Amino acid sequence: MTVLYEWPPTRSQRAKWVLEELGIDYSSQMVDLPEGQQNSEAYLAIHPLGVVPALKTDTYTIFESVAIVLQLIDEYPEKNLAPAVGTPERAYYYQWSAFACAELDPPIMMYFDNTMRPLKHMRPAGAQHDARLAERGRSDFATRAGILSKVLSDRAYLLGSEFSGADILVGHSCFMATHTGLIGGYPVLQAYYERLQQRPGHRRAYAS
Ligand SMILES: N[C@@H](CCC(=O)N[C@@H](CS)C(=O)NCC(=O)O)C(=O)O
């Protein structure tokens, strides 16, 4: 049985979304972050960084939301959530997948950490919100939102008319940008994320 280690609504929703899109039978194991369950010996054996998500299948246990999404999509080629290996379309699929975790998540988290993160959850303990870092996050996100807005101005999804795993990855970054208030001012990106939210797989993954 496939097990998703999650705590909604966090980056574990990326993994849950792809599980729902692919129709995989899985069970959910909640890792209570406020209670500190991520730092238990048992969970650290699954994810050595003590964060969610992680995924356990009959044959492997992995972490990193992007790796989970890409691996599961490769296991179900008949669901057509990724272009064929070696094609130009696959190159763009890799590009936007990497862009989500390397270029979108960090500025959003920098902004969140320095504006909205409760002080009792700051790292290191006792750290305060830093207005300069918040501005750096906002400004770096703005550059990247501009790039996405340009690409999405003439298409429904990142690769064109077909939804793919890259939309799950960037789509979750849009979820984070929505809940930090950063997405306001980028109507093309907002419309794209609204489109993604119509998908039954997205609805089920984010219902909790
Ligand atoms: N790069 C990782 C990031 C995972 C991550 O930072 N998860 C956060 C929630 S979004 C977490 O579990 N934080 C727990 C904590 O800070 O104690 C991924 O995409 O899977």
3D architecture notes:
The protein has 208 residues and is of the alpha+beta class. It has 2 domains: 2-79, Glutaredoxin (3-Layer(aba) Sandwich); 88-199, Up-down Bundle (Glutathione S-transferase Yfyf (Class Pi), Chain A, domain 2). The chain is 51% helix and 8% strand. The chain has 8 helices and 4 strands. The chain has a 4-stranded mixed β-sheet, with helices on one face. Helix 1 (12-22) packs parallel to helix 3 and helix 6 packs across helix 7. It starts with a strand and ends with a helix. 36% of the residues are buried. Bound molecules: glutathione.
Briefly characterize the structure.
With 208 residues, the chain is of the alpha+beta class. It has helices at residues 12-22, 41-44, 65-75, 88-113, 131-152, 165-179, 187-197, 200-206, and strands at residues 2-6, 26-30, 54-56, 61-63. It has eight helices and four strands.
What is the overall pLDDT average? 97
Which residues sit in consecutive blocks of at least 5 with pLDDT less than 50? Answer: none
Ligands bound to this protein structure: glutathione
Give the helices and strands as they follow along the chain. EHEHEEHHHHHH
Shape: globular
Beta-strand content: 5-15%
Q: Give the biggest sheet.
A: 4 strands, mixed
- As for the CATH topology of the largest domain, it is Glutathione S-transferase Yfyf (Class Pi), Chain A, domain 2
Portion of residues in helices? 40-55%
Give the CATH architecture of the largest domain: Up-down Bundle
